[in-house]
Amino acid sequence: MKSKIIKINSISEFHDIRQLPKPEHPLISVIDYSGIIHSPKHDDVSWLQTYYSIALKKDVPGTYRYGQQSYDFNDGLMSFFAPNQLLNIKYVPNDSNKKPSGWILLIHPDFIWNTPLATSIKNYDFFNYSINEALFLSEKEEKIIADIFKNIKQEYQSNIDKFSQSIIISQIELLLNYAQRFYERQFITRQKSNHNLLQALEKVLTNYFNSDTVIGLPSVHYIAEQLHVSPNYLSSTLKHVTGQTTQQHIHEKLIEKAKEQLSTTQLSISEIAFQLGFEHSQSFSKLFKSKTNQSPLEFRQNFIN
């Protein structure tokens, strides 16, 4: 049975659903998570929100289930959601006596409309990470983030003037840049898991190009699905570990396989191109030359006695 989808069209609607006081500003709201009231009717729902949501949560009782991943919030954890992303939550209560804490920042796109942030916010890859790729914070990092939430709340609670929006947007940018820094720290401190991901990627690509039923180049989305991560998180991790994107890794493995075929078989260029998933051999030859500075035929000449 599919979970119920709840579409929330405004920040005011979110406040109503969570039994919170009306927002003090229609387009931006900082919510103290300890004041959230959980309703049993929201135990298994899918949220579709039309605004940005940035959350820092800790000691949340129970387990939330996002897709196939179960997650608890014993540690300080940040999550980021862009407008119109579907968030599946299954709440499983437990016996914890811990009091939940944290903050949720809701930003309607209209608040940042016609500002540089409206464009630059799309460059922060973590808005497209899965919940199991969330950001874990140290106590020191938690304090930095919490202080920024409080600064934003204090600003819109003050008398609104012509400086208010730009000051709040500056604080949002500061928050996002700190998150970017902390994600970089997380990539560095997860060297073992990053290495395992790289090994798994190598295996997926090898199996794909060794398959008898190769149909076109594998997409980044397909590779990410096989590795059970989001496409953006995969590319971010690979760029940190190897300096290359997922697409570059795909091309690298393709060229490796092509070189093997060109040097050890009598297959024609067209046959090799077809085996590697190319509908037209010209496309294969163009890609091969762009990566090796040689045409497939020129490369093969090196192995002819």
Description:
With 305 residues, the protein is of the alpha+beta class. It is 47% helix and 18% strand. It is built from twelve helices and ten strands. The protein has a five-stranded mixed β-sheet. Helix 6 (191-210) crosses helix 9.
Write the SSE topology.
Layout: E1 4-8, H1 11-17, E2 28-32, E3 44-49, E4 52-58, E5 60-66, E6 69-73, E7 77-81, E8 86-92, E9 101-107, H2 109-112, H3 116-120, E10 135-136, H4 139-157, H5 164-189, H6 191-210, H7 220-227, H8 231-241, H9 246-264, H10 269-275, H11 281-292, H12 296-301
Parallel strand pairs: 1-3
Antiparallel strand pairs: 2-9, 3-8, 4-7, 4-9, 5-6, 5-8, 7-10
Helix pairs in contact: 4-5, 6-8, 6-9, 9-11, 10-11
Helical proportion, percent range = 40-55%
Separation of termini? 65 Å
Summing up helix and strand content along with how strands pair, one would put the structural category as alpha+beta
Rg result: 24 Å
> What global shape is seen?
elongated
Strand content: 15-25%
User: What spatial order of strands do you see in the largest sheet?
Assistant: 1-3-8-5-6
